[in-house]
Design brief:
Elements: H1 10-30, H2 36-47, H3 53-60, H4 64-76, E1 80-84, E2 92-96, H5 98-116, H6 120-135
Antiparallel strand pairs: 1-2
Helix pairs in contact: 1-5, 1-6, 2-4, 2-5, 3-4
């Protein structure tokens, strides 16, 4: 990954790096025909099986309508399955299909590839800014 020079403008360096990472992740996801938002929902469902749209929206800090639209696309692609909850017939539980589970493995591999391309200065920039955000 191209090294971002830090000339006293940490915020700018951080933003440039985030944009670089976003482009790399997006490029990786395009090869498997998944948007970044779909990838995030798939990764969430991998860790939180049997969640519903409301759970995913709250955890991902997205609106329920946005997550609902993403889920509709993922169901259409046969990556996510929906079924009624056993304990509450009004609730719909979401889970990954076998295809969805296989795709999550590909997404994780892509994330590892992009992360491995980070230089030490990139890692320092990312780590420094995230620590500052937590203190603020």
């Amino acid at each position: 990954m191209r090294e971002v020079k830090n000339d006293g403008q940490e915020e700018l360096a951080f933003l440039e790096l985030v944009l670089q990472l976003h482009r790399e992740y997006r490029r990786n996801l395009e090869t498997i025909h998944v948007t970044p938002l779909q990838a995030v929902v798939l990764l969430f469902l991998r860790c939180h099986a049997e969640s519903n749209v409301m759970d995913a929206a709250a955890a991902l800090r997205l609106t329920q309508p946005v997550v609902s639209e993403v889920v509709i696309d993922l169901v259409r692609k046969r990556l996510v399955t929906k079924r009624r909850s056993v304990s509450d017939s009004r609730a719909v539980c979401l889970s990954l299909s076998r295809q969805g589970d296989a795709l999550v493995r590909q997404i994780k591999q892509g994330v590892r590839q992009v992360n491995s391309s980070l230089t030490q200065p990139d890692r320092k920039t990312l780590g420094g800014m995230t620590r500052k955000d937590r203190r603020s």
